[in-house]
Amino acid sequence: MTMAITTSTAAHTSIASVTLEVADPEAARRFYTAFGVDTRIRLRASEAHSTGFRGFTLALTVSRPATVDSFVHAAMEAGATVLKPAAKSLWGYGGVVQAPDGTIWKVATSAKKDTGPATREIDEIVLLLGVEDMKASKQFYVGRGLTVARSFGGNSRPDPPHPSTRGTLPCSPRSRPPTTPPRPQSSTTDSPPRSGRR
21: number of CA atoms within 13 Å, CB side? Predict the structure, then answer.
């Protein structure tokens, strides 16, 4: 997985897109179009077969439970596997699906009740990284202009757990990406220190 980084004149850094390596790019393209995130995802053919937890989870933050249900339903109709059915929790409402290519997606809202009909609007895409060295990884991403939210280190594990991961590090752009991402002006292929398995 790689991220295309765009720097604006206001010195804000945002994630223009996430590139996923997949076994079948055409099948993945059909899935992500049906799921509704095709404008934010880039695909390339994988050179190595990958199964299981890849060291990251992508999360969609949306405005209401009906929108969570809409995204989860679209993913299921397009061939995703439900890992955690959408339900109320202490923090809001959400569910987790695994795309046919193996990528894990969490769709969530902090709202517990609907205040209107479902939309297809995404408030934010968050990259949850399973990392071994929380401090070094946080410094790496902050140094590249990304906001790193509260990390879940220590005994916490990502969903689903993986034994080589010591914690989860949520990264998101400092400003919301536009509806149609611009072409990246620069990209980073640097690797964070001691990241989780892919």
Answer: 11
